[in-house]
Amino acid sequence: MLKVKVLLVGPCESGKSVLANFVSESIEGIGSYVPTQGVRILEYEKPNLNGSSKGAGCRFELWDCSGDQKFETCWPALMKDSHGVVIIFNPELPSHLKEIEMWYSCFVQQQPLLDSQCLLVAHHKPGHAGDTENLSLEFAAPASFHCLLAHILPLKLHSVMR
Ligand SMILES: Nc1nc2c(ncn2[C@@H]2O[C@H](COP(=O)(O)OP(=O)(O)O)[C@@H](O)[C@H]2O)c(=O)[nH]1
Ligand SMILES: [Mg+2]
User: By its UniProt entry, which PANTHER family does this protein fall under (predicted)?
Assistant: First the structure.
């Protein structure tokens, strides 16, 4: 079975843990904010990647990293052997916009990873000013993740077969 390690990084309170829980179908619901300390690792399996029952399976590790830069000394250890990075930010917060470049530089450019192994997610919390149609994470997140995985998996398969 293939193993794929994907990091979720970005500013504090951007929705990394909510997104990680949702994608991995974790039972942890959405409640009051609990800052992630260091990292949480969530695992989930996709038994057949191409939709047929005979396809190869894949085990995903989602590394839900803290947005607090006090954990910066741990970042090299978190990044080791990762196949993809998802940067999540809240586009309504100017402080988050300023931070994106730093997260991209540290987690994508310095590894280095290809841009096709990186996904930038602008995550609006429900109830924000432009939320007229009440589109939520439930609709946006799986599509974005599948886009990222579609990029990462061929690269991973290539490295396995070499
Ligand atoms: N209802 C709802 N609340 C959200 C959503 N995204 C973030 N939140 C709220 O924002 C808080 C912070 O999100 P969290 O994922 O913990 O942030 P991070 O892990 O620090 O990036 C959560 O405790 C939720 O209350 C969402 O899609 N739906
Ligand atoms: Mg968190």
Answer: DRAB5-RELATED
Question: Residue 12: nearest ligand to its CA?
Answer: 1
**Torsion angles phi and psi, residue 2, rounded to 5:** -70, 150
Top mutation candidate among 13, 42, 131 for ligand 1, by most atoms within 8 Å of CB? 13
From atom 11 of ligand 1, which residue's Cα is the shortest distance away? 33
- The model carries a pTM of 0.84
Q: How far is the CA of 83 from the centre of ligand 2 (A)?
A: 20
Domains in the chain, CATH or no CATH each:
2-48+56-161 (3.40.50.300)
Per-residue confidence in pLDDT tens, the chain, 162 aa: 888 999 999 999 999 999 898 888 887 777 889 999 999 999 988 777 666 666 678 889 999 999 999 999 999 999 999 999 999 999 999 999 999 999 999 999 999 999 889 999 888 887 766 655 544 555 455 555 656 666 666 655 555 444
Instruction: Specify burial of residue 76 (Cβ count, 10 A radius: 0-12, 13-18, 19+).
Output: exposed
